[in-house]
Amino acid sequence: MSGIYIHIPFCKQACHYCDFHFSTSMKKKDEMVLALAKEIGMRKNEFDNDPEFSGVETIYFGGGTPSVLTNDEINFLISEVYKNYNVVENPEITLEANPDDLSAERIFALSKSPINRLSIGIQSFYEEDLKMMNRAHNAAEAIKCLQEATKYFDNISLDLIYGIPGMSDEMWKQNIETALSFGIPHISSYALTVEPKTALRKLIDTGKIAEPQDEAASNHFMILVETLQKNGFIHYELSNFGKENYFSKNNSAYWLGKKYIGIGPSAHSYDGEKRGWNIANNSLYLKSIQNNELPIETEILTISDRYNEYIMTGLRTIWGVSLERVENEFGLEYLNYLKKQAQKFLKDDLLSIENNILKPTPKGKFLTDGIASDLFYLNLEE
Description:
Elements: E1 2-8, H1 29-42, E2 56-63, H2 71-84, E3 87-97, H3 104-111, E4 117-123, H4 127-133, H5 139-152, E5 156-162, H6 169-180, E6 186-191, H7 199-205, H8 214-230, E7 234-237, E8 240-242, H9 249-255, E9 259-263, E10 268-270, E11 274-278, H10 282-290, E12 296-300, H11 303-316, E13 321-322, H12 323-330, H13 332-347, E14 351-354, E15 357-360, H14 368-375
Parallel strand pairs: 1-2, 1-9, 2-3, 3-4, 4-5, 5-6
Antiparallel strand pairs: 6-8, 7-8, 10-11, 11-12, 13-15, 14-15
Helix pairs in contact: 1-2, 1-10, 3-5, 6-8, 11-14, 12-13
C-alpha cells in the first residue's frame, strides 16, 4: 500500500498549542499550489522500483488547514496526482478541514468532488475551550458543520482534545456524547500537549492558563476508551477509534510501515529504507521547486532505527509488536533485548504477550509512548 500526503502550510490563525509548520499569511497561496503540483510531478518515479506498488491507495491533505484552499485548488492537486501516478480504483482521499470553512454550500460542493473522507478539527464543543486554544471556529459552527457534513459524507472523522485545564470529567463525557450523537464513525483524540515555543507555553509560563494535569488527562483517556468501546468503536491506535471498515487507511499505512511520499514544506516521506523531509520554510521551498530542485533531506535508517520505529508504532496499535517479526527482520540479539526490557512491564501488568504478539494492557495504554522508549535500542550495531 502506498500513499501521498500533501501538506498545506496555511492557517487563518495560530492555535495556541500548535507546533506544526504553517503560515497565517495567504500571500503565497497561489504560488504554493503551483509548487505543490510541480513537486507531485517531479517525484512521479519514486514508486517505480517498488515491486509491491500497485497504485496510490490514499491521498491525504493535511496541514496547516487544507480547507483554506478552494475546491478548485483541491481538485487541481488531486488531478495532478492522477496525471503522474497510477491510482487504484476508489482510493481513500481525505481532507482535513476546520468547521469555519465548512459552510453548507462548501460541504455540498466537496461531496461532488473526489474527496470521500473528511477529518474535521472540532477539538471541543465548549466555547471557553475554543477561545483558550485560539481556534478559528466557535461552538455553534462545530455543531452546524457536523449537521451538514453528515448529510453528504459517510466517512467522517473528528478530532477532540482532552486534558484541557478546567475541563471536568463530566464536561469531557458531554464532548464525547455530542460527537456520538452525529453518528460519526471515526474519532481521533489527543491530550493537550504543551510544546516548547508555542503560545500555550508562554501563556502557562506567565500564569494566564493553568498547566494541564497528567492525572486529569489520564482520567479523560480512560473515559474516552470505555465510552467509545461501548458504542462499537475499535481502539485501533492509541489516539484513534474507528467503527469496523472506518479505520484511516492513510494513518494505518504509516503505523504499519508502508511507503508514502510527502509533498509540500515540512512534509515527510518514507520508502522502507530511508526517511526524507522537506524544508519547513515556505519561501525556501518555493524557491527550490521553482529552480527544479527538491528541497528534501534524507537519512538512511539503521537497523536500530527501524527496530525502534517498529516498537514505537507497533505498541500504539491493535496489531502490537510481533516477536516473530522482530527475530526475522532484526535478529535474535534484538529479540532477546526486547524480551529482557519488557520483563518489568509484563510483571507490572502494563504489557502482555499473546500469540507471540507484545501489546499494552488496558492499564498500560496511556503509558505506551513511555514504555516504548524503554524498549528502544540505541546503536546496537556499533
